[in-house]
Amino acid sequence: MSLRNLMKFHSLCLRSSNKLSHSQLSEFQFCFYSSFPRSTKRLKKTQDTHLKNQAETSTSSTFGLLFNEITEILGGDNFTTGKTQSGNLISGEVKEVKEEFPDCTQGVCRNAKESVLQEKDNVLSLEDTQMGILGGNDVSIEVHKITEIVRAENGVVSMEERLENLGVGFDSEVVEKVLKRCFKVPGLALRFFKWVNLRDGFRHTTSIYNTMLFIAGEAGEFQLVEKFVEEMEKNFCEKDIKTWTILISLYGNAKLISKALLVFNNMKKCGCEPDVQVYKKMMRALCAAGKDDIVIEFYKEMVKKEMVIDMNLYKLIMNCLARLGDMGAIHSVAEDMMRVCQTPEHIVYGYVLKSLCISGRIREALEWIRDLKNKDVTLDAEYFETLVKGLCRADRIVDALEIIDIMKKKHLIDGKVYGIIISGYLRRNDVSKALEMFQSMKESKHLPMTSTYTELMQHLFRLGEYEKGCMLYDEMLEKGVEPDTVAITAMVAGHVSQNRISEAWKVFKSMEDMGIRPTWKSYSVFIKELCKISKTDEIFNVLNEMQASKIDVQDEIFDWVISYMEKKGDLGSIEKIKQMQRIYKLYPQEGESPRTDASKEQEHNMELNSNQSEAVRMDCHLVEPLPRNYDEQDLQEICRILSSLTDWCLIQEALEKCNIQFTPDLVVEILHNCNTHGSAALHFFSWVGKQAGFSHTTETYNMAIKIAGRGKDFKHMRNLFYEMRRRGYSIKSDTWTIMIMQYGRTGLTEIALNIFGEMKANGCNPTGSTYKYLIINLCRRKGRKVDEAIKIFDKMICAGHIPDKELVEAYVGCLCKVGRLLDAKKCTDSLRRVGFSIPLSQSMYIRALCRAGKLEEAQALVDEVGAEGSTLDQYTYGSLVHGLLQQGRMEDAMTKVDSMRQAGINPTVHVYTSLMAHFLKEKQIERALEVFQKMQQEGCQPTIVTYTELIRGYMNMGKVSNAWNIFHRMKLKGPLPDFKTYSILITSLCKANSSEEALQLISEMASNGITPSTVNFREVFYGLNREGKQDLARSVLQQKLALRSKRKFFT
Questions:
Q1: Contact of 123 with 214, CB cutoff 8 Å
Q2: Are 518 and 548 in contact (CB under 8 A)?
Q3: Listed residue (839, 874, 935, 975) closest to 559, CA to CA
Q4: Which run of H or E residues covers position 444?
Q5: Which residues, in sequence order, are CB contacts of 844 under 8 Å at separation 6+?
Q6: How do residues 815-828 score in pLDDT, each as one tens digit?
Q7: pLDDT per residue over 963-1020, tens digit each?
């Protein structure tokens, strides 16, 4: 079937509200797929998983015969081997082909180069290299002036007013160039785009729309993209090839495959013929989404149109065909590469072999080698190496060793090949055999590669074999093997794990002597290891070193450090880190643009945090991240399958095509990454446990139990626990703790207490984490049991466990709320005996009193502390101000703020946000905005809570458009909206009779990985019914059921 059938199919999609389900797309792939010669029978077999498994079982004995035949071929005296002139067969760079065959490949190389340049031009070159030259007019001065105004976001005079008074012309050329210079500030670009459209005589051109499409798409605002497309049609603005290319590129990169295919369909309908770049973008997007069969249809269409296909695209096509197992098509594509592009046959054959090995098609790879023998093709050493890699990847190390023996006889073996075998053993966690192979390699006089030394060192350090790891590093240096950043970083981590900080710094500094510049990753590993052993001063030293070396200190690093310090209760250091972060954003390193995007991990306010984010933090402590000893590509592939498909039969079929060697570490990471897709993840857990050669561990069961609990699938959670017990797995404290936490966080504290008793009855001693999460859940409003919390807290202290700051705040806060002040005082007094400083314990008590509305008691304690206050005063004052404002005592609150300033303490973001919230509640919007502006002028960056309060205030005052502007600003520039933000906006929209917009937010939450609550669904459901939209209200129930089925395990 030709690509025209693809167009017919997507015409149906257009008549179905432009929505394409996974099941529809899957059915369509099966219907329209038309393979190359000799491939139909093979593809038909792969459609039925049961038949495939039967075929593999019945032919398993034939694999041994085939492998023996291949080893005889490879080991035969009459089978010649050689090296390619390129020196690197598999890399396949066009440059190498050109050097070997300059005459016949010159045109191909030139076309490939032109294609790259054209692609860059098509997607948009957002920064013009020569701003002054366009049609002979020098507009660079005007562009610079306008851009300066547009990007000056916080000016006292509005952007629109300043532009009106500028006195320059706004023609389409100038506007387009300004927008291209503002692509990093999409909100301001949109504002300018709208303003200029209102000017008399101005009309947006296709080029301007193209620029805005790109800016909106890069910011992830696809609703805005669709709006621009509609505007173009409404304003009779014709789409050009660049418009279509941008749309396909944006949707493809976002993995919105059905949208990309619909755009491709509309493009052809409009009479715009797709060029090479459009086909390439479609094919890359389809390949990334696992739609290999559709990729092949596009390739066939390109061949018919005699389009130039570059080597990278051919490699992509080969990988798709290898995953499909379509050898007939592989033969045809290989012939096209040699015939059309005149690629040398040894390079083409190398591509084929590598693709088959990467996709786990070992049988097909062996058959391919047999075909090469029949063609009398010279077998290069790289072919052997590729086959060894493929066998190790498929966990056939014994077979790989047979190939190694042949390579030894033919003198083709080197340290790189030995390294492949060693990596295979390490992937299995079989360190002893890896070391045996390592020793054998050295005895054979082969020099190990840097990567081999590094992998062995990493595994030895993980096993606590510190001395052996150090000996390997010294040996590497003695033998003249140059270490790279990864090897040096591994050694640094090893030293830090043993608290040998001076040795770690010595090794780290040795990079400079070797001419190696430390990477961001090197610094981040250093900092993470220091966090594990609580070396605060050294963390500051590493951060200062990063800044001195002009390394981009990303927000991710600051968040790690802040999280570590919060657990430690080191509030003074937290403020220093945050100050360092603010300074870095204001004054980025030379050559870097100021960063306006907020970190992905949002800073949560003490007064307004969501239960959902709290639960995520709790989960993080229980299942520790495991050392990475798996292939990252395998992880990404499985996660893509589990997250992109909904039908388990289709998921299972895709999994069985992967031929990936699963290890416990890989399975834990897959489950961790796919925890929001609970049903698929739990089915995967069940499926992988039945695979030959794989056995679950306590860690994989713990992760599955956690996923079931987070989806409130408690029946399945218990079933997994009983299954662990039946199969003899070690049930440790972490397993019990996870179940206690999952019951507790949903308010089922009685069951959590029963589990706690069962844990002790089974002889398992509770850990500090067990006590912590049980007490925190007993202190929550839902399921609160204060007396039990007090008893268990006392038991925790008696057992020698030290509570952390998070637990103390939750516990003392609960006691103050229910009026148990003597118990709260007793707790804070006892903290001094377990290492808490006096100011810290007093500060936590004062803040708890403020939150509970007991301001007189809090103030009395502040007066009692007097001069003993420290840097913690700013947090104490902040809590007092917040408490006063909550009671409507505005004058007292402002007096407290003035006393803060007199004491040399600047108001924190907490204080500013509390003041804003008060003014917004009183509908004094001007005063709230004054506080917001002053806060920024003093270098105090707004948090997610600040913006959420603005949204709440605007909605309460009926200023819906202003609230939406803040919300869109958060999505474009950060901090990203969290559960609380979405919930407040949904509630407000439903009250304002805009429940349909609230319904869209429910879908957006789910797509952004935030699980909507029952309350969210209920508010939208009732709101739609009130507005007379019963059909939409029923769809809310359907969405809720769909979310439930997505999170729970159904057999």
A1: yes
A2: no
A3: 975
A4: none
A5: 805, 808, 809, 812, 828
A6: 998 989 888 888 88
A7: 898 888 888 877 888 889 999 999 999 998 899 998 888 888 877 778 888 888 889 9
